[in-house]
Amino acid sequence: MQRDKFFKEIENLNHPNEKLIKTHCSYCGMQCGMNLRVNTQTNKIIGVEPRYDWPVTVGKMCPKGVTAYQQTNHKDRLLKPLIRDDASLKGTTEGFREASWDEAYDLIVKKFKELQSKYGKDSLSVFSGVSMTNEKCYLTGKFARVALGTRYIDYNGRFCMSSAAGGFLRSFGVDRGSTLPWTDIHETDCLFIAGSNTAECHPTSMFRIWNVQERGGYIIVVDPRETPIARRADLHLDLQPGTDLALANGIVNQLIELGYLDDEFINKHTNGFEETRELVKEFTPEYTSMLTGVAPEKIVRAAELYGKAPNAIVMFARGVEQQHKGVDNVSAYTNMALITGKIGRPKSGVATFTGQGNGQGGREHGQKSDLLPGYRKITNPEHVKEVCQVWNITPDEMPKPGVSAYEMFELMEEKTIRGLYLLCSNPAVSAPNQNFVRKALKNLDFMICSDFYLSESAEFADVILPAVTWSEDEGTVTNIEGRIIKINKAQEPVGESKPDWQIQVQLAERLGRGKQFSHLKTARDVADEFRLASKGGYADYYGATWDKIEKQDGVFWPCKDENDKGTPHMFLDKKFYHPDGKAKICALPYRPPAEEPCEKYPLRLTTGRVVYHYLSGNQTRRIPFLHDMCPEPYVEVHPETAAKYYMEHEERVRLYTRRGEAVYKVKITEAIRKDTVFVPYHFGHEDSINLLTIAALDPISRMPEFKACAAQLEKVEIKKVQ
Amino acid sequence: MKKRLYLELENCIGCRSCLAACTQCGGHEERNRNYVYDVNPLVNRQTMPLMCLHCENPACARSCPAQAIQIHESGAVLSALVEKCIGCQNCTIACPYGIPKFDTEQNLMYKCDLCIDRTKDGIPPMCASVCPSNTLQWLTDEEIENKKKQFNLDNGKWVTSMPYLEGETNVKVNLPGILQGITKLY
Ligand code: SF4
Ligand code: SF4
User: Fold this and answer.
1) Is residue A223 a contact partner of residue A251, using CB atoms and an 8 Å limit?
2) ipTM for the whole complex
3) Helices (DSSP H) in A129-260: which residue ranges?
4) Gap from A679 CA to chain B (nearest CA, Å)
5) DSSP characters for A184-206?
6) Which residue is closest in CA terms to ligand 1's atom 5?
7) pLDDT (tens digit, 9 = 90+) per residue, A142-155?
8) Of A103, A341, A621, B131, which shows the fewest CB atoms inside 10 Å?
9) pTM score of the predicted model
């Protein structure tokens, strides 16, 4: 299926005394295929071999993927549960002692029960992530609601994908991150890519993206920085951070002005066009230019190139989503496809670059504060009833919706939430406004953290549980395309580490919920229950059996039953998921970033990734090659701006906002706007740029505005040591 | 069918996956053997790989007084034979591209051997296997011929056939500029 011109039959190199285990990368949403090399004498993972037969990435990997295997037998692995008796040491790596699983479980159960009997069920919370399998994501949602009975569960997708989800739900009535498979990308005629540093964050998309230009097609890139992809783009719209909504409205204005509408599509398959036409009237190229800083002729040209293209794909990522109007940005860029009818057919559509490995699947099955498996709503009594049947509980046992990730920290600070079970996430690096978040974590009465390394967040825990890496367990993840794929186990867990689903089953049994959990003895058991729980929801995975995934090179959801091959292309029948079958063209008034530059804070600070690191860097900072390539954060400054501050390349300077400060090395480059500075966010403690970022949340997705706030630079005198 | 390493420098995104992958070739002792340069880091993000070109008449081998640098029948210019290399470092100076690296601890030269364990059986080298941007590709002569037709450069010159400092090379290089001659679709 979908074997295209990049696919070549290539035999793998088999070394003596080794076997190859087919799987996928542990990191980003590309989920590149890879083979793990396992020594058949020691049964240990010892290396990587390309997976040429994976149709999406045909053997390609970025440096994170190439070195991902080094996580498994890393010297920093947590091998036993750790307990810290002295709470005054919270926020440090000090004071932990090794313990048995029984001792750890006993302590957790005792503390959880104490807190819940004193302060109610909702005094506990679960904060999870989506860099883990669907099975684990699913069970985490069930664990929170059934075993703990708390309403407070949310996950790091709020810092990643939730604006895309909110935008797609509003525009299409369904949230599948890409309306088409990645194997369509190189065959389109125009790519409009906003707020995605694709070459660094989703590198293995690049061979397909460059091919569009080699075929004579166009690439349009929207970014405040001249990223590697912007450097070669046909058109680079270098907007001010946080002004996407104005730009999107401006382009829609020009698509209308220049006559690129598909009237028939608009009439038959959409609502909301007239209001939108009215609203974007004022977004003339000149007005849009004033708001965004992009030259008017570039805005017109973008509309021309996109409008004229026989086929085109609108793509975006965190740059547009991590804003306090992220959902509006997503819907506004999606408008481009809806008014020109460039959707619902091969080679045309809309896609977001999913950030985390299972950013798609992990948000569909009940880790979000208001969602249940299959994208069901916890506020919908019918949905609750359906899930309760699978979970073997009564509807009145189902907790109410909770709050979003960042808002949980607010509840910790004010002591509504007193206990936390953290897994698969490192919010002490990745959440905004770190000074507040770290205070909130310190304020907890009891915290457990499950991880395979001692992360910055684990430093706040009372108990740390050693989890396995992705290579020591099996299950499915849903990649950037919406394709459900299989992660395979290559090695037995190191030390006493356990997969999170098993930890949850064992804890649930001790919390008196054996009836609902004890039957889950293997990852496949969890998978079977999870498919059933998703059945009938619109993110229906019921038909996506592991066998089918293997046979078909993955299965695109929805996949309703055994005979359903899945849905690579969405909306081919031009039916959208709103009750009337139509998509919504959204009229969205512009609003500026929550914090605009001023005299005291005249610069715009934006944050993002580098190719060598993943999320909070808890994994990649420990990998020697990746560490060597990017050992520390830096602040990117335009040479003219640097000159104004009398700063030199590599000089250490103080960067500060209303919320915090940090000292960084200056990296001078002309490849950034003069009014903007950039810092990568993968670093912890005093290096974390999230000490400075703002927690202005999107009203719908509750996504913080990582991508724009007001900042100032200052020279520092570094005293020489010795 | 003989395949060659083919470089399309315009594509490079500077991810250095080629370097990471180089350490993964079984015979490479986890040391990478090539380079990726930031072309003009204070100005833009252009990068390019600098790989051994596997010259047909390699200066490194010619300069070696101990005949430690052998040429494989496939044309790959191999890393110095451990038992023959005397650590004189002539090769590192002789190579016009600065490819051979030197291990001062072991007093040994080491360089790209085009993943000879793999390429001798027609399996692509690690760098070209993983390169996310198709800067590094592993192609048949016919495919390279097609590339030549596809990319009609302004100056009428097909860069991979230009005489290098060291004459013909087994690796073919396409310098930045491949997009110049492309006819746009619309
Ligand atoms: S991090 Fe992403 S692009 Fe890199 S190898 Fe892993 S899945 Fe592929
Ligand atoms: S892997 Fe490819 S794109 Fe990345 S640095 Fe090497 S040549 Fe450039």
Assistant:
1) no
2) 0.96
3) 134-142, 162-172, 198-201, 206-214, 228-232, 244-257
4) 16
5) GGGGSSEEEEES--HHHHSGGGH
6) A65
7) 999 999 999 999 99
8) A103
9) 0.96
